[in-house]
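# step 3/5: fold
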Amino acid sequence: MRKLNNLLQELEESLVILSKAEKEIPNRIKQLEQDIVAYDAERQDLLHYAEHVNFNAAEGYIRFKELQVVSQKRRQAKTELEDLMSLQDKLNKRLFEGNRIGSTMKTIEHRKTCRTKFSYAAKVRNDLQDRMNYSFTKRERT
């Protein structure tokens, strides 16, 4: 009887956590979407600045570093958004039908793996591809 009570208590605690997550996920998705729009606008500002302003090497470095920081923040937001959209999709498909819990756990593990194996294929500037590949490989090792 004690095992059954412990199991029921653990199940109840898990359901409370799932219920909170189900309510918080849409709000977080909305916030991330707003953040991505703001990051896109900031990146556009920096690109237009580079297009229209003559600057020296020091200022160019500063602006390019700012572009790098905002791009990294945008990537983090996009990755979290993709993770949450995937999780929300699983929650919306009635988590407890059939083997959906196992499937949801596999999805979460897959998303964690995808996060560490990010890559990008240059569309125009193929001369940058080798350096980006090295950077992604270096990041995976750390």
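# step 4/5: annotate
Residues 17 and 116 are 26 Å apart (CA to CA).
# step 5/5: archive (pending)
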